[in-house]
Amino acid sequence: MAELNWGTTIQYIREFRDPILLNLYEKAAEVQEIVAEIYEKHNRNKKDPKVPELTIKVIHDFAFNNAVPWHEDWKEIGDKLLTAYWAIQATSATSLPAWWKELIGYTPPVR
To answer: b/e string for 6-22 if b means 16 or more Cβ within 10 A?
Structure first.
């Protein structure tokens, strides 16, 4: 379905994905830097055996706390795309009511 409407589909996905990824890349770099500083400061000469575990936990928690909501967002995006393009695929787009085309953001497929 997305193949027939690739131009609008990929644009919609990029508009959703790109700001999230940019933010995630920035935050991940910050978290990695902070964890590296903590590890370096507190684990010199293996003074504290818990530091490696704690730093790994910080990275794990950061990843998990970002992945779960993002996964839920992706499912919602998938539902929206499926609703929009399945309706178009299953019927002639010309027979769809104007209010429905407006609601789903229909644009004619670019081939």
So the answer is: eebbeebeeeeeeeeee
